[in-house]
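[09:14] KT: can someone run the structure on this one? pasting the chain below
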Amino acid sequence: MSRTPPHPTREQIELPLVLDCLSDPIRLAIVYQLAQQEPVSSELRCGDFNGLSGKSNLTYHFARLRDCGLMQTRVAGTNRFVRLRREDLEARFPGLLDAVLNSAAKDADRLQLVAECDVVKAD
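[09:31] RB: done, structure tokens below
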């Protein structure tokens, strides 16, 4: 039995589901943090986001992000690593992710996107 959760194919990613998923502040914060860490590391552990919410609530949000195609999860031992599916999103909806992230960056303080996460900051 595979422990890797199912992911939609590139062709199965739908714009209404992506936009609905990004409308939640916690999910937007997760995507924003993943994008901020891309220059340092393409993936982060699920536990790196504990500062955003409780574990069970984060599990729900990670599942929603995975189900709509925004994020990919990789299981390694007891850890789950997540990364943005930037290439797939860019192929399906050119410029969408960058537009969302640029807009979110402008409102990061108001949206509280720069949360007290355990995420390692780039030097």
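[09:33] KT: thanks! The radius of gyration is 14 Å.
[09:34] RB: yep, looked fine to me
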